[in-house]
Amino acid sequence: MRPTYTGPCPLAKKCGGCQLQNMEYERQLHFKEGKVRALLGRFGRVKPILGMEYPYHYRNKVQAAFGVNRHREIISGVYQSSTHRIVPVDSCRIEDRAADAIIVTIRRLLKDFHLSAYDERQEKGFLRHVLVKRGFATGQIMVVLVTSTPVFTAKKHFVAALLTEHPEITTIVQNVNPYYTSLVLGKQQKVLYGPGYIEDVLCGLTFRISAASFYQINPVQTEVLYGKAMEVAGLTGKERVIDAYCGIGTIGLTASRLASEVIGVELNGDAVRDAIANAKRNGIRNARFYPGDAGEWMEAMAAEKEQADVVFMDPPRAGSDRRFLDSLLKLAPSRVVYISCNPETQARDLAYLIQKGYRVRSIQPVDMFPWTEHVETVVLLSRKKVDGEEKFPA
Length: 394
Ligand code: SAH
Description:
The protein is an alpha/beta fold. It contains ten helices and 16 strands. The protein has a seven-stranded mixed sheet. The relative contact order is 0.12. The site of S-adenosyl-L-homocysteine has 16 residues, from helix 6 and strand 11. S-adenosyl-L-homocysteine (SAH) binds at residues 214, 216, 245-247, 250-251, 265-268, 271, 293-294, 314, 316.
């Protein structure tokens, strides 16, 4: 049973992070399903959206900006949408509760230790951001203190005090970001406590998560999403699979147990390193990961007359470019599973693939981000059969 709706979050207007706070959860699901139907309905029947049983506190990664208010008091929270004004937040409906509590403690400890928060206007002060990541399945928690300088007075005592109040923390990292930038993390990093990373379990596999690496922020729904992606891919153990835009390899590694071979391609070199380490960590031998542009990579595969049976593609919000789509057409896998976080660009890409001989076989929306306007979709495409079977299955 979902808890009863008690009205919008009091911070909704100022924070701007959740656009659907004025809607009760069932209505949000209806709204998102309608959005997907409006954009993708012309390609086939849109299945009912898969929502969350408990659509609260689902975010495993929480980020708080630190600063000072008019009275020079330390505040922490989120930036007001498209500004750099901090809206103070102590607890949030969608963030992990343990992470929120840790952030409040850090704010108090700063005062106790006479440490300052960063003042963006004066470009002065010590603590800029706190990032907390929690492995929901393992319970491991990482705290990243983003500071403006590497000099951290009373560092040992501060860390000890934080651990006394929150023994659940498994690692603490100091990240130094001295730049005038809206990026949260800087390049320099120092582990203050524990191994410097956490692990989480997703779809039965263990993934290592470091301060900077990308990891899905709603692990509960990620399992639902990947489950659907695997189901529609119809893997039998014999297929050669490509995981395009693979990130740290979560989709490819999940598929590796159901396929003969997996090849993952990803632009970000750090993520590729994580993907390779994740394969090793889980004893997976039939998955390889490469850095590069997914379109360029598949173009080269096609030129060398390499083949692939199934391509999973999970591009960023902008969707895929022509080069990628054309390389996909050259490679001509029998099935394509297109996972998207933006149905608008997905609609554009699907229209192109359909025009060139693919057919949409199923459309499944999944709610990965309750209370926000975002919606994720899994679309299965397969090549139009020569014998003319073109109908969209009911
Ligand atoms: N499939 C992963 C990551 C999806 S996010 C997961 O579910 O966790 C999209 C990823 O595409 C990002 O990691 C981004 O770095 C990568 N990317 C962006 N443009 C790319 C390109 N042209 N070629 C390959 N990867 C790209």
